[in-house]
Amino acid sequence: MKNLKLNKTVTWAFPILMLALGCNPSRIDNKEQKQPDLAIEFDMRLGGFLPLLPLNNNIVDMMDRSVTIEDFDIPGFPKKMITYGTVFAVMAEVTDEFVYEVAQSFHEMFPQDPDLDLEMQKKVLNNMLQYRSLIPVLNGRYESLSDDMEGSMEQLSKDYSVCDIIMYRDGTGRQTMEVVEHLLHYLTSIGLHLTLPEDWSFSDPKSKVTQVMNQAIDAGLYDVGSYKDMIEEDKEVYQRVIVQEFSYWLISTYWDLQEPYGPMSEEEWNVDNKQDLLKKLPEGYDLVEQTVDRFMKSPSLEILEKFRKYN
């Protein structure tokens, strides 16, 4: 689909733009940390966005599912919502209703079910908090941002770990997967990468997700051709992006979300549903089943259906 292709191009242009604008140094607001000695400057970011060390030692309260929308001091982002340790920087035109529904989707990925590994949930979300994950929520498409807004995005990328964006009413007709995809990008590129590196590291060529991704590429199930131009800009960012995107395809297909909410004409990914995944890429099926499925679940159909009204 042409509109999805455009969406991918804009989305993956974002980390390259952040590099060009200078996303290396990290600054920490003292009120967001417990130990001042953790507030240090970083000269490098893994994959173009992730600090090499945690920026605080705070802990997520898994029982606190409250959602509060507060004032924010970044130009163009007058609102912020913090939940489960992740900050959402929100443009004025984005409705509070949408923000609350995004938060609910995030919460439902971590149900407090005693049959799940609740300690692993805490580890994943604590890592996202301690590495200061922040998701910008934009009104419309990224390429429509003004120069001033691009400056604000630069500021966010310096102060937080920013690997992608959520676009509100972007005109693609896929609002449900716009939310699910980019929540998973953060959860995999920060939470799983740090918590389960042998399985989900985007930077380790020997990690299971990288090995399964390479199998999918060789089998013609995952086409990374649209990202080739990124290699010349930064090979490390390219590697992170293709693993990040693959992780989204893999988990969302295991959750059986592609058929009801994803475009089935997508050329990048050639697996339709969970059963198709088991048949075509059993190693990928097993990776999700043996790790993610033990502590995370798909958001409910009830909340996913609510995003259709924004299409």
In short:
With 311 residues, this protein is of the alpha/beta class. 47% of the residues lie in helices and 10% in strands. α3 (118-130) packs across α5, α5 packs across α9 and α11 (274-280) packs across α12.
Q: How do the strands and helices of this protein lay out in sequence?
A:
Layout: H1 2-21, E1 45-46, E2 50-51, E3 68-74, E4 77-83, E5 86-90, H2 96-108, H3 118-130, E6 134-139, H4 147-159, E7 166-168, H5 175-195, H6 197-200, H7 208-218, H8 230-233, H9 235-254, H10 258-261, H11 274-280, H12 282-290, H13 301-306
Parallel strand pairs: 5-6, 6-7
Antiparallel strand pairs: 1-2, 3-4, 4-5
Helix pairs in contact: 3-5, 5-9, 11-12
Architecture overview:
Helix 3 (118-130) crosses helix 5. This protein has helices at 2-21, 96-108, 118-130, 147-159, 175-195, 197-200, 208-218, 230-233, 235-254, 258-261, 274-280, 282-290, 301-306; strands at 45-46, 50-51, 68-74, 77-83, 86-90, 134-139, 166-168. The two termini are 15 Å apart. The relative contact order is 0.14. The model is unreliable at 1-42 (pLDDT under 50). The chain is 47% helix and 10% strand. It is globular. It contains 13 helices and seven strands. A five-stranded mixed β-sheet has the order 3-4-5-6-7. By secondary structure, the chain is an alpha/beta fold. It has one domain.
